[in-house]
Amino acid sequence: MNLPRGFLASGVRSGVRKKRPDLALIVVGGGSGRGGTGVAAAPATAAALFTRNRFQAAPVTISRESLRATGGRVRGVVINAGCANAVTGRAGHAAARRVQAAAAGLLSCARQEILLASTGVIGVMLPDAKLRAALPAALMRLSSSGLAAASHAILTTDVGPKVAQATYRWNGRRGRLVGFGKGAGMIHPNMATMLAFVMTDAPATAPFLKAALRRAADESFHTISVDGDTSTNDTVMVLASGRLPGPRMAGATSPATASFRRALTEVCRQLAFMIVRDGEGATRLMEIQVNGARTAKDAQLAAHAVATSPLVKTALFSGDPNWGRILATVGRSGARFSPRNVTLKVADLTLVEHGSPVAYRERDAARRFAKDRVLITIDLGSGGGSASRITCDLGHDYVSLNADYRS
Amino acid sequence: MNLPRGFLASGVRSGVRKKRPDLALIVVGGGSGRGGTGVAAAPATAAALFTRNRFQAAPVTISRESLRATGGRVRGVVINAGCANAVTGRAGHAAARRVQAAAAGLLSCARQEILLASTGVIGVMLPDAKLRAALPAALMRLSSSGLAAASHAILTTDVGPKVAQATYRWNGRRGRLVGFGKGAGMIHPNMATMLAFVMTDAPATAPFLKAALRRAADESFHTISVDGDTSTNDTVMVLASGRLPGPRMAGATSPATASFRRALTEVCRQLAFMIVRDGEGATRLMEIQVNGARTAKDAQLAAHAVATSPLVKTALFSGDPNWGRILATVGRSGARFSPRNVTLKVADLTLVEHGSPVAYRERDAARRFAKDRVLITIDLGSGGGSASRITCDLGHDYVSLNADYRS
The whole model's pTM is what? Predict the structure, then answer.
């Protein structure tokens, strides 16, 4: 898949991880073709959402400050895997700054026009010399078809790369969005870092991008990982090269930009699903839809508790129609409701009504719980609040992967 | 171990679980020796703490109401394993009432003088006919040495029985407390039911017992399972036969009762530790001590997040000194603090100071993380709030046990 006009990417080995690519580069450019540095005359506009964890990794702090300093002007993004550069104090911050400065030097731009993202082990100092030494090679390999290499280079325990695209209409023309990301970890409760980068040719202002990204994230990444329940490094970025001719996109809710906003949400949703499906060792997904809650907050509490319950997730692993664990989890979630109003369904089959089990054939329930994707609908019968979460099962591979991850 | 004076117990098979004892009976009595019904002239006084889950199992509702109706007067307790009788609606409530009435009939007492507790699968109707049919056999086997049988009969996925005892001084004499319990499940986040029953010969009033039990639970069961984060059936009971001569114990904080209160806390702490150590498939414990939080609530948020993090628990399983996951979990816990004030120690070894890693030998950290019991101390450097939690690791046995539990 080619990148949208105005972007080049590459992925190389820096040596931080053994024997696999671990450094990705995105550069705003694309006029000069494969092999050149290809830096464009005009920078991209950009917006990003970062983790709300109290411990914010150095690349998060630096990217946030840089975006603020430039008002959302970006020339390049440097992403590394293998070291999160989190909880590394001033020395870690300085190391990240050196990577940023090295990339800026190579691209002949201001330091703050380079954004950073890292994923990997926490509490280990960034081996920034390795990254800086690998940057020239990453620059040499930049290409409009560099997405495959870049999307591979950012993975940690992910089974495979995650890439999504969508198109939109603007000013009578068709534009493109291409995104890539990484997740793994149980996502939810999420200590594994989630990274996502979406590139588009849209002529969008930075404030417009920010507003559109917030809404898209609410309907995608936030259904798999809620505010605050994030790693030290979680980052979602959208970059717009402005190569699609037409007036600037602005006005967060204008109908004219609806096509773009829908497409951005679609790309984010695809990436979010791929991240859950690839949850470390996951074999099965569960979608939890909570309706009829007193408030949206009550619905979120209930859906979140179910999506993060190890007992629900291990039952999902074995395809066990153990709805009792699901309701017991809802009961301890903090959501307010009366048990006797509760209804629970798996797919189209009602299992509980008025808080009591109904007559159903165990075989019918078992078949629905054994599918690749299990939809649980819980109606609390207490109001109009609703929320949904997507989660994956917890099996032996999860334990193996996470028990060994530091090695 | 003999029961305190005034109590008899037994454990038998009712057939709810295949091929293992699943029905325990405690009766206030003991004058008439082994084999008799042994109902005492005087009932025991009792107090209990129940789950705060919105879904409360039928035995919880009935025991709570019964205690209220009698003012804490108890003749017997019927405990069954294999079926939680939770989320079973009115039919489940009626089934539990029939068990209560049957036991009351056999013991010639009022229905409300019988308390109930159940543990097992949620959402399955109680096979009360089996329990009622087994009650006469349970009665026949009542004995002052029936603790071993009773403590076996209440287990589900527990590896083994949990029994604890302590002594106290009152009125110049030595009295006894004997408790037994069951847990398993990850405890925390706890969907597996925790049950504990403590018997004593103390001449205590019910209000005194209630106050003493609350305090004891705060320093024991609540450090492994916090308010609200409980199953549908969690129950902790204390029963006092009053066979120790002397004035009645009353006054929740009187110095004269300090010895008894300490002993009750000690029994509860022992049971709580046994429950965590026996967490499904657990191989290692972690004690998380959070100090220097802005408030006690902040400390609890931080300690709870670490104790329930699957990523921390899988790292603990492999003995991996992955303190980065611990701090990242503290960072998303909702506790308020400044990362640069944070200190983290494992046992006596400081790993993080002022929010940055200090120089230590990996080998020294690894050795401390590989112990059977790992003590993590986190100082948030933000105030005087503190809290502690105990948790166990999450390994392959956890997945196997919980994926198969319904069978």
Answer: 0.81
Q: Give the SS3 label for residue B393.
A: coil
Residue scoring higher pLDDT (A314 or A90): A90
- Rounded Cα distance between A115 and B88, Å, is 55
- Partner-chain residue, chosen from A56, A317, A331, that has the shortest CB–CB distance to B53: A331
Query: What SS3 class is residue A33?
Result: coil
Pairing state of beta strands A73-74 and A76-83? Answer: unpaired
Rounded average pLDDT over A175-203: 81
Of A51, A119, A193, A257, the active-site residue reads: A193
CB contact set of B303 (below 8 Å; sequence gap of 6+): B288, B289, B290, B387, B388, B389
Q: Which domains does chain A have, with CATH numbers?
A: 7-277 (3.60.70.12), 285-404 (3.10.20.340)
Which residues of chain B neighbour A284 with C-beta distances below 8 Å? none
Length of chain B: 407
Which residue does chain B place closest to A338, by CA atoms? B54
Annotated active-site residue B88? The verdict is no
- Contact yes or no for B339 and A55 at CB 8 A: yes
The C-alpha atoms of residue A172 and residue A194 are separated, in whole angstroms, by 35
Q: Could you report the per-residue pLDDT of A289-300, keeping only the tens digit for each? A: 999 999 999 999
Catalytic position from the list B51, B193, B230, B265? B193
- Taking contacts as CB-CB distances below 8 angstroms, the residues of chain A near B310 are 186, 189, 310, 394, 398, 402
Strands laid side by side in the A162-170 sheet: A73-74, A44-50, A235-240, A195-200, A173-182, A162-170
Say whether A339 and B310 touch across the interface (CB within 8 A): no
Closest chain A C-alpha to B124 CA, distance in angstroms? 8
Amino acid at A356: S
How close are the terminal C-alpha atoms of chain A, in Å?
Answer: 33
CB–CB contact B324 A87 (8 Å): yes
User: pLDDT, tens digit, for every residue of A137-173?
Assistant: 999 999 999 999 999 999 987 878 999 999 999 999 9
- CA distance linking residue B317 with residue A51, whole number of Å: 27
The residue count for chain A: 407
Give A-chain residues touching B230 at CB under 8 angstroms.
332
User: Do the Cβ atoms of B14 and B134 come closer than 8 Å?
Assistant: yes
Q: Which pLDDT band holds residue A385 (cuts at 50, 70, 90)? A: very high
Are B328 and A121 within 8 A, CB to CB?
A: no
Gap between the Cα atoms of B331 and A54, Å rounded: 4
Nearest CA in chain A to B339: A55
Token representation of residue B143: 């004995």
Distance from CA of A230 to the nearest CA of B (A): 6
Provide block-wise average pLDDT over 10 residues at a time, chain B (407 residues).
Answer: 96 94 93 47 93 93 98 98 93 97 97 97 93 98 97 89 96 97 61 87 97 93 70 94 95 89 96 81 87 96 88 85 90 92 96 91 92 95 93 78 60
Please report the number of interchain residue pairs, chain A to chain B, with beta-carbon separation below 8 angstroms.
210
Question: What are the chain B neighbours of A320 within 8 Å (beta carbons)?
Answer: 403, 405-406
Report residue B37: phi and psi, to 5°.
Answer: -75, -30
Q: Which residues of B touch A339 (CB under 8 A)?
A: 54-56, 87
Alpha-helix runs per DSSP H in B6-72: 58-70
The reply to whether ipTM tops 0.90 is no
